[in-house]
Design goal:
This protein is an alpha+beta fold. The chain contains 23 helices and 17 strands.
Length: 622
């Protein structure tokens, strides 16, 4: 992986020695090779990489007419693009990415499949372009000032360089109410590049352009259901294979669930079929006492030749008071730091995870929205039979299912998404203070993704909405401690996602048959016990064990709560919910976790603030 950074003065003033020093110092931490810098009047673009400049995977490329691209990520369809552009066999990823832009501008970036971010200079337009793949997996941030544009793969670096330390209250409000803050970072004026978009900055202005949208109108129909199963197997195999291209061993998370188990079993199948061209495999399992995952995980380990490594969650907890994220609040930092150390010891640069599998593969108990699609097609008898089947399975009155289907057909309504259900029986209490609600007016800055889910077939709007929110929030973005490696998600492979979104929902999930298509397609791949599994281990106990000491600390020192000091939350509501949490009572725990995490992150920022401001005094502000 590479690390990107740069500065562009809109008036083309000469860049200074401090500019270059800052960029070089940031990039040198990436690998053993000297950072690669591209300089033009008013512009420095840099990338740090662990590969030599002459390698096929070079992270930067300059065309004969002086277009320049710096690249971070993995290009999955490089062979296809080389044939399409009649490019040389050794053409680098950055060269091919630049060619897509040359031919079709920002819209051409749609042709790039993989996990990537890039920065591109177009001298013809005197413009810098920043872009990320459709899921925003590789990080990229920017700050647009009146006279310049700064960007970096590292949020921490960009905060230091700009000297910005003002907390963005819109981020706080979104983080505490939705669990994520799409289009925002914790710092006012610093933004993430939106997934599937290009940020274009010509002549001092800044705008965004989408090159990928939710495929709400795409429909895929095969004459035989077995063709869907075969296509799913092919796309999944391609996805796992693309994330196995590395000189060292490959690591994969293994819980014993269908998603992680499928990845490990497919990797093992590829290794068995062609041992000379596929790397060794290690599995990482996160264990806790009395977990129901154990027997399923052991079934996969017995069926595969991978070497297994355990990470006890008591040693790598959900959160700790001193490990709450660096530049932004984040969960699981102790675990990610442990993974980083173990991957380095193994000589690996790749770890694969099963994130997004549940959503894409139809692991839902209630997909009764399928009834709405039959109504839309005027298949009233089939709609009635479908509603009856879901009614029997869910044990709810049939009229409620038919009413929801009718409402979805007559309006743009959809059932509540995951982000709308962050509450328990204690209600929607979030403890935000009335004054904070009044002074924070959420803007549309950075919320570039239109609600395209509304144009989806009525029975699939909830799925498209959930996916759209997940992508906007960049929840698949590589965690900060793992940004130097490829933290890959086979279920986020774009051709696979677009295929699963295009086929009829009745193939994916049926009443009492979640993951219907997945189970059929992977019948010969997974151990029988895993294939039949319908249970899922919840980490609620691990969450609670990690959060109880933090909640106790807050209750012992209620006069030192930063969230109250900054008037973000109401003192009485927050402390009452903390007491209920420690007593095991309803308290809207999922949202309370966000409050606790942000509280301890604000304390950490306060502790680190002096050193950050000292460093900021030497930045590019002048």
């Amino acid at each position: 992986m590479s690390k990107l950074a740069g500065i562009y003065y809109f008036d083309l003033r000469p860049t200074g020695a401090s500019d270059e020093e800052r960029i070089s110092a940031s990039l040198e931490s990436t690998g053993r090779f000297k950072p690669l810098l591209y300089r033009r009047p008013g512009l420095i673009m840099g990338c740090g990489t662990s590969e030599p400049e002459s390698s096929a995977g070079s992270a930067c490329f300059t065309s004969p007419d002086d277009l320049h691209c710096t690249w971070d990520g993995r290009l999955d369809n490089a062979a296809v693009l080389r044939r399409q552009y009649e490019a040389e066999a050794g053409s680098s990823d950055s060269c091919l990415a630049l060619e897509t832009y040359r031919r079709d501008g920002a819209a051409g970036l749609l042709d790039i499949i993989g996990d990537w971010s890039l920065a591109l200079w177009d001298p013809r337009l005197r413009s810098v372009l920043l872009a990320s793949d459709y899921a925003g997996i590789r990080p990229l941030y920017y700050h647009h000032a009146p006279d310049r544009l700064l960007w970096s793969s590292s949020l921490s670096d960009l905060v230091r360089w700009t000297g910005i330390n003002e907390i963005d209250e819109e981020f706080v409000a979104l983080f505490l109410t939705q669990g994520y803050a799409a289009g925002h970072t914790p710092y006012r004026g610093i933004y993430p590049v939106p997934p599937g978009h290009a940020v274009i900055c010509p002549h001092g202005t800044a705008g965004t352009r989408a090159f990928w949208e939710l495929p709400t109108h795409r429909q895929i129909r095969y004459a035989d259901d077995r063709e869907d199963e075969e296509q799913l197997r092919i796309l999944f195999r391609d996805s796992v294979a693309a994330r196995s291209r590395t000189a060292g061993p490959v690591c994969a998370e293994l819980s014993g669930g269908l998603d992680s188990s499928s990845i490990v079993c497919m990797a093992n199948s590829l290794k068995t079929a062609d041992p000379a061209n596929y790397p060794d495999l290690f599995t990482f399992s996160y264990t806790c006492e009395n977990s129901t995952d154990r027997k399923y995980r052991e079934a996969v380990e017995e069926a595969c030749t991978a070497q297994s490594i355990r990470f006890p969650l008591k040693d790598f907890p959900f959160v700790s008071a001193q490990q709450v994220g660096k530049a932004a609040p984040a969960w699981w930092e102790p675990r990610f730091l442990g993974i980083s150390r173990r991957i380095a010891a193994l000589g690996s640069t790749v770890i694969r995870a099963g994130h997004q599998g549940e959503l894409i593969m139809g692991n839902v108990a209630d997909d009764s929205g399928q009834v709405a699609d039959y109504l839309q097609e005027y298949q009233f008898m089939q709609a009635a039979r479908e509603a009856f089947a879901w009614s029997q399975n869910l044990r709810v009155p049939i009229y409620s299912i038919l009413w929801r289907a009718l409402r979805a057909n007559c309006t743009a309504w959809s059932a509540p998404s995951i982000a709308d259900s962050m509450c328990d029986r204690y209600g929607h209490i979030d403890s935000l203070s009335p004054a904070f609600r009044k002074r924070v007016v959420l803007s549309d800055h950075g919320c570039h993704r239109e609600p395209g889910w509304q144009s989806a077939p009525p029975g699939r709007r909830r799925l498209f909405r959930s996916i759209g929110e997940m992508l906007s929030a960049r929840v698949l973005q590589v965690p900060e401690p793992l940004q130097h490696i490829s933290y890959a998600h086979p279920y986020a492979h774009r051709p696979l996602v677009e295929f699963m979104l295009g086929i009829p929902s009745r193939l994916v999930c049926r009443p009492g048959e979640p993951r219907r298509l997945m189970r059929r397609a992977f019948a010969g791949l997974l151990p029988p016990a895993v294939l039949r599994r319908k249970s899922k281990t919840a980490y609620s106990g691990a969450y609670r064990d990690a959060l109880l000491p933090l909640a106790g600390e807050l209750l012992r020192h209620t006069g030192d709560i930063r969230l109250v000091e900054f008037r973000y939350v109401d003192y009485g509501s927050f402390t009452d919910r903390l007491k209920r949490f420690t007593e095991g009572l309803d308290c809207n725990e999922s949202q309370l976790r966000q409050l606790i995490l942000l509280e301890f992150w604000l304390r950490r920022v306060g502790q680190d603030g002096d050193s950050m401001q000292d460093e900021a005094a030497l930045t590019w502000i002048n």
